[in-house]
Design brief:
By secondary structure, this protein is mostly beta strands. It is built from six helices and 28 strands. Strand 18 and strand 19 form a beta hairpin. Helix 3 crosses helix 4. It is globular. It starts with a helix and ends in a 15-residue tail after the last strand.
């Protein structure tokens, strides 16, 4: 039978095969199997998925769709520009962490205190509050300024027209630089200029901070130029003139006088607000702090603090401004947001707090005691006195080093 079928014509063999297959599909067992599969497909999610995938039409490859009607119907991608709000400016953002940057992080903390009448420097270990070193420098040292890159410390010896260079590793003198009558020393925010505040000659000198050659000078035609701070963009500075009641503006780029504002009294220390909008100026004669708008060039507010308002220090969280009231032995705390005094701390037994510094964590406020041969340490959380440390005569612009910040603006340690 099989040999006979092989001799049949192809069309007949195909017809016979199809009729046999149709008969098999119509048989009872096969119909039962298909019924079971159909029921499972209905009640089983997996079966439904299988059925959909099995019966779905073939999709052309991405290459085949390029330029076709299907690709043109796809929605356009969302390429609308998104504008995010500008982050709030804080010129002291680099000081918020409370962490000393490396390589300075490996240095032991020290507080360097210049004694103006004695012509000496005392070195305090802030962990023990003990004086661990003492050495002579030039005549009438007023402040100790960290270099812009914090690679050295400079003691400004006004009486001997020199800077004593302190090695940051040994804490000892390592050299001398001759510049005229430095009452104060600052560095421009970009680090390209050292600024010698020559109060005796009523001028400021701009010098190269590497070889100290003169770049230019600006006459300040009012007596008592001594403290300053810089705008947020570093294009100008505002400097107090203690004996004339004037705060002057100096163009840093062109090195020229660019304006002035009268605040009266005896303006002393100057500090920029964290948002860069105002300059706060202590006024020893008016017993408070002037708030100066450097654009309108006017005093927009006066905040009474206490007799002899003198030094300034921004809190570690940059929400507050500490003010030393030198003639009444107290400290005032100004809230930047409300521009008002929110606390006052008195030194037990009195004192004469002058220039201020914070420890890196911001938990201790250090102050030189100008007329009491004493350094005061205050607890910033409670306002209580932590320590009194005996030092030399007329201690003035002390610095706590190393400290936090990307770079130093000089003075006795102002960081950004």
């Amino acid at each position: 039978m099989g040999a006979g079928c092989a001799s049949w014509p192809p069309s007949l063999r195909t017809s016979l095969t199809n009729s046999r297959l149709a008969g098999a599909l119509r048989s009872r067992p096969v119909r039962l199997i298909f019924a079971i599969i159909f029921v499972l497909a209905i009640v089983s999610p997996a079966g439904v998925v299988f059925a959909v995938v099995w019966t779905a039409p073939t999709v052309a490859s991405p290459v085949a769709l390029q330029g076709s009607e299907t690709s043109r119907m796809l929605p356009a991608p969302d390429v609308q520009p998104i504008s995010l709000p500008e982050p709030a400016l804080n010129v002291y953002a680099s000081t918020l962490s409370g962490t000393v940057p490396c390589p300075q992080c490996d240095l032991p903390p020290r507080v360097y205190v210049p004694n103006s009448t004695a012509g000496t420097v005392d070195v305090i270990d802030p962990n023990t509050f003990a004086v661990i070193d003492h050495f002579g420098v030039g005549a009438i040292p007023h402040h100790i300024a960290p270099a812009w890159d914090m690679s050295a410390l400079y003691v400004d010896n006004e009486g001997s027209s020199s800077l004593t260079v302190l090695d940051i590793h040994s804490g000892r003198p390592s050299g001398t630089i001759s510049i005229p009558f430095p009452y104060n020393l600052y560095f421009s925010p970009d680090g390209t200029k050292a600024i010698d505040v020559v109060e005796r000659l009523q001028r400021i000198e701009f010098r190269d901070p590497h070889d100290w050659h003169l770049l230019g000078s600006v006459g300040i035609p009012w007596p008592g130029a001594d403290h300053l701070d810089f705008s947020a963009d570093g294009s100008y500075l505002m400097i107090s003139t203690e004996y004339s009641g004037i705060v002057a503006r100096v163009d840093l780029v062109n090195m020229r006088l660019a304006g002035s504002v009268w605040v009266g009294g005896l303006p002393i220390d100057v500090r920029l607000s964290p948002d860069g909008r105002y300059f706060y100026v202590t006024n020893q004669g008016r017993m408070g702090v002037s708030v100066v708008d450097p654009v309108a060039m006017k005093e927009v507010k006066f905040i009474p603090t206490g007799r002899g308002a003198h030094g300034l220090q921004v809190s570690r969280d940059t929400k507050s401004l500490y003010v030393s009231n030198r003639l009444e032995g107290s400290f005032s705390v100004i809230d930047f947001a409300s521009q008002s005094v929110v606390a006052k701390w008195n030194i037990p037994g009195g004192g004469s707090p002058d220039m201020l510094q914070l420890n890196p964590e911001g938990t201790q406020l250090w102050a030189s005691g100008r007329y009491h041969r004493t350094v005061y340490v205050m607890n910033t959380a409670t306002g209580g006195l932590i320590a009194k440390i005996a030092v030399g005569s007329e201690d003035h612009g002390l610095t706590y080093f190393p400290n936090v910040g990307a770079h130093s603006l000089g003075h006795n340690g102002v960081y950004r």
